[in-house]
Design goal:
The protein is of the alpha+beta class. It has six helices and 13 strands. The radius of gyration is 21 Å and the shape is elongated.
Length: 287
């Protein structure tokens, strides 16, 4: 089991200076923070996010990094550890993903209000039709939860992630989101099977293949897949700037229902984990 393997790792050292070799991946892990027991560096290299009728492939790698505490042994969060944010403040990297079809695929000119059609026409004429979606944390990193046992055994929720989706385009303005701090999208990702409400059907993730690096002090999970297709998302809001009252309903119409059972998150990733003790000792051993 991953917890037991990581708990024994680490070596004595001297003055603190820097991390080397594979340990450099953990340079933003808060491994000297009291209570932090593990470091994690996870890169999502593929998969897709489906919101209603629109699927956006993950084509640009996204990094989730930081540390986490011991797992709770009792209470409502039994088995889950609390996340601690990355020391550079970038726990979940904000990486834009292109929306297939761009602006014209989200906002139809047919039947749109005159002001919206005029603004859209201006955007099209100026070549501003590309749209990106960026996944962002909707709550502090401390509200992320991770369960190593579930992740490594392919049962139950492995990662709880409160997020919001940012739609980015000059026409849509800078405040076009699905989800918010007040109403986050909650992903309960699993490497096992999901249990969504209809019309979605159960899908399954995949437990990655473990490989030991740095004489066993780092565990890498290759080809890991975590999924969730039971979540719901609020309607888009803040889109189109001053025209948001007109544009928001159009985007909602194009996406269709984003209630639970109509959305999917599939994250294909490579995960690196080490004990905070081992990371700290690597630092101390390299003056």
């Amino acid at each position: 089991m991953m917890i037991a393997m990581l708990a024994t790792l680490g070596f004595a050292g001297s003055a603190s200076a820097k991390l080397v070799n594979e340990f450099t991946k953990f340079k933003f892990c808060p491994y000297t923070t009291a209570g932090v027991e593990r470091c994690v560096y996870s890169v999502t290299e593929g998969g897709a996010v489906t919101l209603g009728n629109k699927t956006v492939p993950i084509v640009n790698p996204v990094t989730l990094q930081g540390g986490y505490t011991e797992q709770a042994v009792e209470g409502p969060e039994e088995g889950f550890a609390k996340f601690v944010e990355a020391t550079n403040g970038v726990t979940l990297e904000k990486v834009p993903q292109p929306v297939p079809g761009g602006l014209l695929g989200l906002v139809p000119p047919e039947g749109a209000p005159l002001l919206v059609k005029a603004a859209l026409k201006l955007a099209v004429e100026n070549g501003l039709t590309g749209v990106d979606t960026t996944l962002e944390l909707a709550r502090p990193a401390s509200e992320i939860r991770i369960n190593e046992v579930h992740l490594s055994e392919g049962v139950g929720v492995a990662l709880v992630l409160p997020v919001k989706v940012h739609l980015e385009n000059p026409f849509l303005g800078s405040s076009c989101y699905l989800g918010s701090s007040a109403k986050p999208i909650i992903w309960e990702l699993t490497s096992g099977a999901t249990s969504p409400s209809g019309p979605n059907e159960s899908i399954s993730g995949k437990v990655g293949f473990p490989e030991f690096l740095e004489e066993g002090r780092i565990i890498r999970l290759d080809e890991n897949v975590i999924v969730d297709n039971a979540w719901g998302a609020p309607a888009a809001s803040g889109c189109g700037g001053l025209l948001s009252a007109l544009v928001d309903p159009i985007i909602a119409l194009q996406l269709g229902s984003t209630e639970a059972g109509h959305n999917t998150a599939i994250m294909e990733n490579t995960i690196y984990e080490a004990s905070a003790f081992a990371v700290k000792k690597n630092d101390e051993n390299n003056p």
